[in-house]
Amino acid sequence: MGYLKPPTIAIILPCFNEEDCIDSSTSTMKRILEELIAEKNIAENSYLYFVDDGSTDNTWLKIFQLYQQVSFIKATKLSRNFGHQAALLSGLSAVTNRCDAAISIDIDLQQDPNVIKQFVQAFLEGNEIVFGVRLDRTKDSWFKRKSAEFFYHFSSLMGLHIIPNHADCRLLSNAALIALETHTEPNVFLRALCLNLGFKTSQVYFHVQERQFGVSKYTISKMFNLAIQGITSFSVTPLRFVAAIGFIIFMLSICMSIYVLWSAMITGKVVSGWASTVIPIYFIGGIQLLSLGIIGEYIGQIYMTVKRRPRWISEKTLD
What we know:
- The protein is α/β, with parallel strands linked by helices.
- Helix content is 50%, strand content 15%.
């Protein structure tokens, strides 16, 4: 896609209790915007769009003060903490049809903000969706690195197609944003959903930097919930896995029944034992509980969908 004039870019910055890094991050983003404008790669009306995901500290106050001082800031404050995916989606929805492309990046700027220039260049070359992919995980803790590796391998096994080491750092053209608006499910996993939209895509790579201020708000439980949400939102492989286990156990049960009948009727050497009775009960009981748990996750997804509750509620907007 060619542009007769520089495109308008909206940069989405979701934040939750990030008062310590608002000023520094805004200063960095301001510099990058000014450089891109000076190079005539983006339009002068490009802007930052903050999404305060129900912060309980002075994050919103900081954003409001910056809004009063500079013209390129817009923002919304959600009424409570709806979660990173909902906050990010609310920002993307707010800028749809108000920009040529939107770039999402974490407010702590651990994702190298200079990747924004690569996003813009890839967009100018005709890509509608550009995925930011981290080059390595050397700065992660051992647990986080290994858990991430396990998640990507397990997700692939479960039929979930995502780009390894791609977080929510990406560019979406306005056409992609409009397509994203048609997806109304309440449990959103943007890493897979954006890959599923189609359009022409590309990838850019960046190094993850040390966090300069505060601590990460993305806890282990939030990462685990995101992983479960992603798998159950985009793949029925776990259900087929349950069906396969049930079939295998059924066949084993038939074989066991034939063996018992043969022993009783032909050899007459049937010896009843505690182990042969209790172990199958434990095994089958465990499989049943596992199967019910997996099926329950899908029923939960259906339950949340049919209620059609709003995915987020905006309390205040600065525009």
